[in-house]
Design a protein that fits this description.
By secondary structure, the chain is of the alpha/beta class. The chain contains 15 helices and 16 strands. Helix 2 (about 30-45) packs across helix 7.
Length: about 425
């Protein structure tokens, strides 16, 4: 029998809204105990989860999905272990809910401060990463929010297996069982409905490719926390330590090609280009990374015997490849590097490799991105690596949260006033 999508989604919304009012007053102990029980369930049912995941992988391969897609979809032992670690890290973090900050005495005698409170109901739309099901649920539970999870159809078996595990844990936890719900109908119209449910959903967090994010920007009536592109840069300054530059630039590009925090453009100062580019070029050549280069980089790399090389076009400076492809440009120095990043970047994550303190501080101040780094791989721009336990997404917007979105990013502040009978004169 065909399900009425409007009724189905509205029912999810109503239940999530009701659950949000209950979980908003849940105790820290209850939330942390629930996260630990989910962690134990993942450990105890790993083979069951991976069997469901294997069905998704088999279907993806039969549909001709590429290696990067399969990598994002796969729940390996390493990924499951990281999920468990993330749950426990989140449980160990201080609970932000109810925290009162900036309390000040006013001349009238009242004290005015701000209290951190949940956002309410968070709709999370994601594609081929089933680990998001656990990361998102954990962050929402700890921050006392209810959530509606809408994963991609390509990971439906994995997502349902994880959601059932969460549902079973919630039923015995004392927390509302509807605090975490998953959309089980893989119809794209459920996404369109979710992003317009203003009566029940307070914020949408999309995690996926550019086409999905652009579609949601066009359709959403609910506020979103999002990033559209991950055009990340590393600038190798002429004061850089060669060994640091090699290690960081290798990791930033080749650690995992399919991630939004992977370096897509390498900028090299002219004063160090003839030293560092041949070394990096040969490293990338060995790992079969296609190099799209400007004329200066082409000459240096060709003279060093690095091939094949592709001449970069204007479009390459704008492109998030999510593949073994890297754009390389030789720049005059830090001024040119900052100008390039602020012109072509996506305000996600950018790094400088330098031993010059003043240039490092200039880079931190002047590059207008959500994460700006000195002598570190862009791959570290991640909620888990930042000590947030996990992340619900990364925002390169400026309101209301920026960078990896952890617990505090899923809260808001309201003013609280303590008085003794004061009145306005």
């Amino acid at each position: 029998m065909k399900v009425n999508l409007d009724c189905y989604m509205t029912d999810l919304g109503r239940r999530a809204y009701a659950a949000s009012k209950v979980i908003a007053r849940a105790s820290v102990a209850a939330k942390n105990a629930t996260l630990e029980q989910i962690a134990l369930a993942i450990q105890g049912r790993a083979s069951e989860i991976q069997c469901a995941n294997a069905r998704d992988i088999e279907r993806a391969r039969s549909h001709g999905r590429d290696a990067a897609f399969i990598d994002r979809l796969t729940l390996s032992d390493k990924v499951l272990k990281k999920m468990v670690e993330g749950l426990r890290q989140i449980a160990e973090l201080p609970d932000p809910i109810g925290e009162i900050v900036s309390m000040k005495m006013r001349p009238t005698g009242i004290k005015v401060g701000q209290m951190r409170v949940p956002l309410g109901v968070i709709g999370i739309i994601y594609e081929s990463r089933p680990n998001v099901t656990i990361d998102a649920a954990a962050l929402c539970l700890k921050s006392s929010n209810a959530t509606i999870l809408r994963g991609g159809s390509e990971a439906i078996e994995s997502n349902v297996a994880l959601a059932e595990l969460i549902d079973e844990t919630l039923r015995g936890s004392g927390l509302p069982k509807d605090a975490v719900q998953i959309v089980r109908i893989p119809d794209r119209e459920t996404v369109s409905k979710l992003v317009t449910m203003r009566d029940y959903v307070n914020v949408i967090v999309p995690r996926g490719g550019k086409r999905l994010i652009q579609r949601l920007i066009d359709e959403a009536q609910v506020p979103m926390i999002k990033h559209l592109d991950g055009v990340c840069h590393i600038y190798v300054d002429d004061s850089a330590d060669i060994n640091k530059a090699l290690r960081v630039c290798d990791n930033a590009k080749t650690h995992q090609y399919s991630m939004c925090n992977t370096m897509e453009t390498l900028l090299v100062a002219r004063g160090i280009a003839t030293i560092i580019l041949p070394l990096l070029g040969k490293l990338y050549q060995e790992k079969k990374v296609e190099l799209r280069v400007d004329q200066a980089a082409y000459t240096i790399l060709a003279d060093a015997g690095v091939k094949p090389l592709v001449s970069a076009t204007e479009a390459d400076w704008h492109t998030e490849y999510l593949a073994p492809v890297l754009a390389i440009r030789v720049v005059d120095g830090i001024d040119s590097a900052v100008e390039h990043i602020n012109t072509y970047g996506s305000a996600h994550t950018d790094a400088i490799i330098t031993e010059d303190y003043d240039r490092a501080m200039r880079f931190l101040r002047e590059v207008d991105s959500a994460s700006v780094m000195v002598n570190a791989s862009t791959r570290l721009a991640d909620g888990f690596e930042y000590g947030l336990g996990a992340e619900i997404g990364i925002s390169n917007d400026k309101l209301h949260v920026r960078g990896p979105v952890g617990l505090e990013g899923l809260t808001s502040l309201k003013y609280v006033v303590l008085g003794h009978g004061e009145v306005r004169q």
